[in-house]
Amino acid sequence: MDSRMKVLKLFKTLHRTRQCVFQNDCRALEAARRRINEEFKKNKSECSPAKISELLKFGTDVEIVLRTSVVQGIHTDSNKLVLQARKDLLLDNIPFCDAPEKQT
Questions:
Q1: Distance in angstroms between the alpha carbons of the first and the last residue of the chain
Q2: Which Cys pairs are S-S linked?
C-alpha cells in the first residue's frame, strides 16, 4: 500500500475513533475534528518517506491512546459524574507484582 493510501486510511480511522470516543459530546467532537484536520493539513506537503512514516506511526499511536485511554464522563447531578466505559477500555486486569522475577 502506498503512503497516500496509508495516510487516508489513518485519517479515516482517527475520525471514526473520534466519533466513538466523544460520542454525544459536541464540543469535544468538534475540537477533535479541528485538531485532526489541522495536523493533516499542516503536514500535507511532506514528501520525505521517512518523515511520512514517522508521522503515520505517531498518528497510529494517538488513535490507540484515544481508543484505549479516554473515558467519557457525564454530569448527572451537581456532585455526580457517570463514566461511560467502552468495550475497548475494558482490558484484562493484570496483577502487579513487587518481587522481581528470578532468571534461570
A1: 44
A2: none
Maximum pairwise Cα distance, the chain: 56
The model's pLDDT over 7-20, given as tens digits with 9 standing for 90+, comes to 999 999 999 999 99
- Cβ-count burial 38-59 (b if 16+ within 10 Å, e if not): ebbeeeeeeeeeeebeebeeeb
Q: Mean pLDDT over residues 65-94, rounded?
A: 79
Question: Model pTM?
Answer: 0.76
State the Cα–Cα distance between residues 11 and 59, nearest whole angstrom.
Answer: 8
Q: Using CA atoms, how far apart are residues 15 and 33, in angstroms rounded to an integer? A: 7
Place of cell 466505559: 85
Q: How deeply is 72 buried, as exposed, middle or buried, from its count of CB atoms within 10 A (0-12, 13-18, 19+)?
A: middle
Torsion angle defined by CA atoms of residues 63, 64, 67 and 71, in that order, rounded to the nearest 10 degrees = -110
